[in-house]
Every structure is written in structure tokens, then in C-alpha cells.
Amino acid sequence: MLFQQGLAFVAFPLKIIYLPVDKEDADSAVSVVVSIPKKKIKHAVNRNYIKRRISESYRLRKHDLLHFYSEKDKKLLLAFIYMSNEQLSFEKIDRAMAKVIQTIQKKTG
Length: 109
Hints:
Blueprint: H1 2-5, E1 7-11, E2 14-21, E3 30-35, H2 44-72, E4 75-82, H3 90-108
Parallel strand pairs: 3-4
Antiparallel strand pairs: 1-2, 2-4
Helix pairs in contact: 2-3
């Protein structure tokens, strides 16, 4: 459902696909998927490392998004797809995550 009907934008190095849904269609306020394509990052160790960085950045910044959706009594399906061909620093990923949270709030607000 998310990949067929979702809306997308890019905050490099992340491509974001999101879909606001009714409260009955999702389990939690925000459901998240993190994907690192094997075509971009060859070694599983490096893909897992990047996935941990993205997850940690989201964990640190998710409170604004959760609060935003709990007030509206809606749910959000969210996918992060890594687009860079190399490992980027946590700071770059975290800056992109900040842009993502702001953009989603503006577009769904």
C-alpha cells in the first residue's frame, strides 16, 4: 500500500515515501521501514551500519512527528530509502532527517 499509493520526496541521501492513513489502517502512530539497496552499498556490514545510523537519527527526532500525528488522531506509514553510493557521516544523515521531519509536517499539516 505504501509503495503504490505513497507520496515521495528526496532529502539527500534519503528518499522518503510516506502515506498518511486512517487510525484503523496502522498499528502505531508512525510505522517506519529503512531500506539500503544492495546495488548502492555492496557489503551487508556497511548496509547494516548505515541502517543503524538512519534508525538512530530517526529515534532522536521522532518525538516531534509522533506528537504531531497523535494530536491529529491519524497514522503515518514511512519508508526511508538510502540513495548514496558511499557511507556518509551521521551528521549528514541527521541533517537530512531533520529536513524530512519538517517536510512531512508541512506537507501533511
